[in-house]
Amino acid sequence: MLVKDVMHKGAFTCQAGDSLEGVASTMWNEDCGAVQVVDDQQVVIGIITDRDIAMAAALKHQPLWEIFVADVLHDRPVYTCNAEDDIHKALKLMADHRIRRIPVVDGEGHSAGMISTKDLIDHINTRGAHNKAEALVASEVIALMHAVCTPNALTVAA
User: Which of 5, 34, 77, 143 is paired with 111 by a 20 to 30 Å CA distance?
Assistant: First the structure.
């Protein structure tokens, strides 16, 4: 199974110079919890989540219109996959790096969509009920959820 079989197209994007207020508004209006950050050539350079915005608001003690995407991106690596990749590559990246969403990019690094844990679960619910090949993906999604949801303190202690 390929990433394109599970991903959702049309991920929302922002740029490093955008305010967190604007990004939060996009998340609210579009009912999403993550927005891909792109550069001037529309290449994905990061991802910002609703948690990033909440933590910035709590820790910076500034209004969201005074905090910019670049202020919370720091130098975090961005993990991506390609629509033609095997879905197991995306699952491994997500589990290894404890991320709930992964941008899907084309050959030039432009946004082609996103895979979230919800997309994986939706795929299993709609296609996996009668297909034993999908059961393997279901067990991997459960393992992924376990890896992603493990509290930070437990991973540091391990």
Answer: 143
**Mean pLDDT calculated for residue range 11-25:** 96
Question: In the chain, where are the structural domains located?
Answer: 3-151
Residue that the structure tokens 């919370």 belong to: 72
pLDDT for the residue 130 = 53
Question: Which amino acid is present at 126?
Answer: T
Please give, one letter per residue, the 3-state secondary structure of 56-101.
Answer: HHHHHCCCHHHCEHHHHHCCCCCCCEECCCEHHHHHHHHHHHCCCE
- For position 120, what pLDDT does the model report? 86
In the chain, % of residues over pLDDT 70? 89
